[in-house]
């Protein structure tokens, strides 16, 4: 069914129950959500949006941004969230590739976004601000609400999430209504969510973690959210007494531990702290447990699959593991020729289940290559399953960098660096970072016979072309890159070579 219908049915007439509260005192009930989404869905359909049309959204986090996501579901449209840090060149690619019927942006960005939309042939551009104002709100107020819910099949696409690949070309992962519903229902039960829970929400909502995990779990359980515009350690500590659950990336937890005000007493009202989107260092896990007596629950997933594993709600949460496979998910460790491995043997993690995406948008060959003959999705992550069914992630077969919970793909950055004057080639590798988990180091080879590029200037030039989290923290210039016999750059040698100097601040 349409995912929105699942949310609506789970309300069971409790329309007066609180849904979202904000630090500035705004309060929205589930009844408000139903009214707001009906009005927005009416505005979308009046603009010609039909079932299956994509609606691209690049707006700041707010309750009304959540209502817009739900209105797209209600109207049968495909929701396409875009990081607010994306620059115009990045935005041009996404709008050109996804071919949305409409774009919704912040009012201050409408001139830039409108020009890109016009070049892409997009007929509708609306605005939405954090207070719920903008042209979309005006159209919703003046129009006729869509009181019904557009019928969709389980495998119809509900959302399009872009996940960049190692080739540098971002891929649109098509998530169906069934994909999103299965994760929401499984995780809400596994983590013990009820209508009495209050989630302290400090994550972005253009990301799987903040939107499809956090918000969808709240919606299927009828719980509440305290909606912070962004993570701020002091604000989080101040709001913990009102919350029962907190979700974050590892960076959030390192920053909380750095605050003297974050004590066992401050954490006491929260029954569950959850971490994901990047590996949680065992040292952070241990320090948090020692400070609060509440071990963090770490889980594992990815854009194409939602969540795949979780440490238990009741039972041992083990540092350095991502817990056990979810009840409705099949996960195997595969060796050569996709043959299953035994216990404690390392191989590629491959998964199958109702949470696994429908494929990559407009990329049938890439989709086919990422699935095995018997229907398992190749995650590209290397891991093992131990004797007690805990999953350990030991590495990545792809060159993904996870910085502050965000995926950074080196090839995208390398292509931009290589196009700069004086650069022959480059390699970007992930290095340990105490706050972000990982950060990029750009290793640059200069072109012969021209002035050697200035490393700081290279990084500065990237800031106009990439979201800040993608820009490497440091850059170095070297005579050449290490290669194997096949000519492939040996990034592991680069990481080893620069480890000591990186730790010393270069």
Task: Please characterize this protein's 3D structure.
With 506 residues, the chain is an alpha/beta fold. Among the domains are: 3-177 and 188-242, Rossmann fold; 401-503, ANL, C-terminal domain (GMP Synthetase, Chain A, domain 3, 2-Layer Sandwich). It is 32% helix and 25% strand. It has 16 helices and 24 strands. It has helices at residues 3-11, 30-46, 63-74, 88-98, 110-119, 135-142, 177-190, 208-221, 233-239, 250-257, 264-267, 282-292, 364-369, 410-418, 455-462, 491-503, and strands spanning 18-21, 27-29, 54-58, 78-81, 102-105, 124-127, 157-164, 170-176, 198-201, 224-227, 245-248, 272-275, 297-302, 306-310, 324-325, 330-334, 347-352, 377-385, 391-396, 401-403, 406-408, 423-433, 437-446, 474-477. It has a 9-stranded mixed beta sheet with strand order 2-1-10-9-11-12-13-14-15. A 4-stranded parallel beta sheet has the order 4-3-5-6, with helices on both faces. A hairpin with a 5-residue loop joins strand 18 (377-385) and strand 19 (391-396). Helix 2 (30-46) packs across helix 6 (135-142). The longest helix is centred in the first third of the chain and has 17 residues, at 30-46. The mean pLDDT is 94.
